[in-house]
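Protein in question quoted in full.
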Amino acid sequence: MLRVGCAFLLLSLAILQASGFPRVASGLADTDWNKNPGFKARITQKGLNFLRDLGLQTLRDKIQHLTIPDVSGRASVKVGHINYEVKNIRITSFNIPTASLTTNPSAGGLRLTTSGISLSVHGNWHYKSTGFIHVSDSGSFDARASSISMTLSIRVGVDSTGRPTISSASSDCSFHVSGMKVDLHGGASWLYNLFDHEIADSLKDSVNKKVCPEVLDAVNVQLENKLKTLKMEARFLHVADIDYTLVAPPVFNGSVNTAHKGEVYAHGSKTECPLPVPGVPADSDTSRMVLLWITDYLPNSAGYVLQEVGYLQYNVTKDNVPEAEKDYLNTGNFAYKFAIPQLNFMYRNMDMQINIKSTKPPVVTMKENGISANLVGELSPYAILPNKTLAYLFTLKVSIAAEVDVSFKDNNITWSLSSLSTDISLVKTEIGRFSTTLLEVAVNSAITLYFLPLMNQIGGVGVPLPQIDDLDFSNPVVTHGQNFIKIGTDLIFKE
């Protein structure tokens, strides 16, 4: 009986081989702003603190290598007037001991506030007098600035394609050096206190004018380019894409909350799945850096697409089964003689082809006590006549119900089927009636041996979540809710 089930339920081959459907280039359509989110995400204050630390390191590196232009000026001293120049200015240290990154609802974004910044620079100085007696001198200097304050507003939005954007305007940045102490080295020491304050003021003005443009460049160029690496679409089973684009601007209320499409489309199509999108109840959880809510609309839209493109159908023949399985595709197999004796009598010792297809999109149901999946399909065997034409034999309806366990691996949502049950019935026959009782045991055994391992193999790879290239999810935890699952995770930086 097991061999009968193997012949009728080579569904594993159907899933493996169905990826041979032709591929069509995908394209983006305008975001449907009225669409309920199938996927929601939240970056909590813990997550913002993590991103703040990464951002501050980028800022330190950028300021540390900042080029400060040469400074020149004219000063009045007791011996007359002097013209001075300060050249080869470089920053030797830049420290930000305290900083906060918080949401800024009024500006639609984030606000970075720092305090206690210290800055040290080194360079060379030169002066010459313009009086009756011409005197010139030169040396080096070290300057230190402390009690520096900086604030930066970062605006986060969404463009017409549903991709998030980040920007800051000149009015969003404030960097102020309130005082700077300069120590001059070399030359005539008696002149140090005559114009060191002039150099200090010039340096202070130069640094004040230079830092914000560099910070704005870090936001508008570097961070924006980094944000562009956020994957808003993910490939799924070679024939579809998962769409994670935003369906509304982000909301800032102590956390950053985003609403995403969370839908699967066929390549080259933006045809909406007709299923309703379930709502996600209000949840104030901020226990992890990142929280994700995935509704069952996402997997059900995937099932809808796979059904529409014909992914879940395949014709099983001797040409596409393992050598050990070829004997099952012959009417003379002893198992058929036992379960369906008239089969070999009517079509003696003939090869067979079994057409497998789903008749409805697979349905995934998420509940507080777990996830279940249901698949309904048909198996239709044909005898291959000597002239290579096909003789239709019968059709079985097969309903498969499974319990699904969801987990997380390598930034992918993964799943495994923990149990399976089947129900089969005879839909139509051209070889006379026969009992499906014996077949049902065989079908269950075949599913356990063939279908279940294959589904778990596919689920072990899983589907990717949107992420930035340099960041990984860490220690994710999955919890279940009505029509959704919630994933709480922290972030780590890829070394």
